[in-house]
């Protein structure tokens, strides 16, 4: 099908990203949150008791079985926007060593929620290289929360980059498809 260029939250750029990754030979798996609306990564309860944790366990089992094709377990990447961006961060927090690199769009640390964001005292020792993409005009997830995470990674000696679009809000940035594909290719 076709994707409209005026999709909410820059959805057209997400479709472009998926097409670029597929063209580069990546297998793209795009799971939905158990609630169908937003991931539960930042709801405050124990992660292991969420329905989304069960979704991820089932997904990892399916990947290990080869349900999607033979995947190189040393070359897994994660990306997402908003709740999916927080969920992308969850990969570093709860699934140590599984992901080679992350790209977080319009979000921050796994347990943050919008402007309510407290970074943990320490980050996972094996935190993957992380690319942040954020619009300066984002009123749903303030840029400052992504900047705090980014600076915490840098201060800890982790690989991180931050791409800010001064004119964008809470959306996939126009540069996201190219930046994320290049980020994944370089890691």
Topology diagram in text:
Blueprint: H1 11-23, H2 51-65, E1 77-81, H3 83-94, E2 101-105, E3 130-135, H4 143-155, E4 160-165, H5 176-185
Parallel strand pairs: 1-2, 2-3, 3-4
Helix pairs in contact: 1-5
Task: Describe this protein's structure.
34% of the residues lie in helices and 12% in strands. The chain has five helices and four strands. The chain has helices at residues 11-23, 51-65, 83-94, 143-155, 176-185, and strands spanning 77-81, 101-105, 130-135, 160-165. Strands 1-2-3-4 form a four-stranded parallel beta sheet, with helices on both faces. Helix 4 (143-155) links the parallel strand 3 and strand 4 (160-165). The protein is globular, with a radius of gyration of 16 Å. The relative contact order is 0.16.
Descriptive terms for the model:
187 residues, alpha/beta, four-stranded parallel sheet, 4 strands, 34% helix
């Amino acid at each position: 099908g076709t994707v409209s260029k005026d999709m909410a939250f820059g959805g057209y750029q997400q479709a472009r990203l998926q097409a670029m990754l597929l063209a580069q030979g990546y297998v793209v798996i795009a799971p939905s949150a158990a609630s169908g609306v937003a991931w539960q990564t930042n709801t405050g309860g124990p992660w292991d008791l969420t329905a989304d944790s069960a979704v991820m366990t089932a997904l990892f089992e399916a990947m290990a079985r080869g349900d999607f094709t033979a995947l190189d377990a040393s070359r897994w990447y994660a990306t997402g926007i908003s709740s999916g961006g927080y969920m992308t961060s969850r990969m570093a927090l709860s699934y140590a060593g599984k992901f080679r690199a992350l790209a977080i769009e319009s979000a921050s640390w796994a347990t943050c929620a919008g402007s309510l964001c407290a970074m943990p005292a320490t980050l996972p020792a094996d935190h993957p290289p992380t690319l942040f993409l954020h619009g300066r005009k984002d009123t749903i997830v303030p840029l400052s929360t992504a900047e705090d995470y980014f600076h915490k990674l840098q201060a800890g000696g982790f690989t991180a980059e931050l791409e800010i679009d001064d004119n964008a809000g809470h959306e996939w940035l126009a540069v996201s498809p190219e930046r994320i594909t290049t980020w994944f290719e370089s890691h």
